[in-house]
Amino acid sequence: MFNLCLIYENDRDKAKDILQESFIKIFKNIRSFDSTCKIKVWMKKIIANTAIDYFRKNLNEARFIPIESIVHPASSEESVSSGMNADDILSQVSRLPKGARMIFQLHAIEGYSHKEIARMLNISEGTSKSQISRAKQLLRQWIGGNNYRIIGQEK
Q1: Domain around 83
Q2: Global pTM value
Q3: Core vs surface per residue 97-115: b (16+ CB within 10 A) or e
Q4: Which of 34, 43, 47, 139 fits as disulfide partner to 22, beta carbons 3.0 to 4.6 Å?
């Protein structure tokens, strides 16, 4: 669960705060847990929502990638080569600026739409889309620098 917090927040102390706040919510709401659902899924959702709340409270600290720096929008068909393991991918995602990392996590990993992300984070859909595009571009550059290949691109 701590690793999930680290995806949302790079600062280990802040990630610990998110985890602690999440477990407080989990224990306070354990009676509302629906046993037809897996407890791990329920807990992950609480942690993700707690991280989003934390992000919203600290939005002025979030760094988004400037839209001017987006050169080539990312293709939604590209994906990371199977040559990378989850730790490799997460280490590269953790390098993204906080705001872009949050949006990338919500969209690419959690599966939220740009409209949902915009509503959750109080940003525009355009900001969500541009941050995803720039995050993918940066990840391609970083992964390429580590001799990993994006599927659909020539080496």
Answers
A1: 65-155
A2: 0.54
A3: bbbbbbbbbbbbeeebebe
A4: 47
